[in-house]
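Risk mitigation, structural track. In case the binding assays with heme C fail to produce interpretable data, a predicted complex structure has been prepared as a fallback.
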Amino acid sequence: MLIQRTPKQKTRGAALPLTALLVCTGLAWPALAQTTAPQTTSSQLATGAKLFAANCASCHRADGSGGMKFGNAVSADLRAPGLETTYKSSDKLLLRAILEAKDEDGDRLDQPMPAWKGRLTTADAEAIIAYLHTLHS
Ligand code: HEC
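Fallback model:
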């Protein structure tokens, strides 16, 4: 019994600093992400704004508010919080919506919303998504 307890206590003693280290790293990580994110997105945002103006504004309006009629379809409002709610705050689902013209459930979005795959790269679409996040109703 005594032989079994001693190593257990030793392990616990060694695990404590390790746990503290993991907690500290965990706390430091979001702060690190916050300081680096604006740098990566500032040029991405400029690209996204340009691509949006060139490819999307004609149907979704310059401010992203949409509401233009195309036969029975109406162009979507691409501003927050509506769009983010529809796509469950998932950039992955939004990426699919843009590249494959599929809604949040995977059904084809109404025409004339194009599937942009082949005309826009994934990086292009991601830049547009970063820009869309800055639009608010
Ligand atoms: C020719 C017109 C047209 C162009 C150009 C266009 N869209 Fe659309 N888009 C639409 C229409 C119409 C809908 C609504 C489809 C529906 O409700 O099923 C739509 C829907 C969407 C949706 C889904 C929104 C939702 O609420 O489900 C997204 C995201 C979107 N467009 C993004 C874009 C982006 C980004 C671009 C530019 C790269 C773009 N669209 C260019 C017409 C267009």
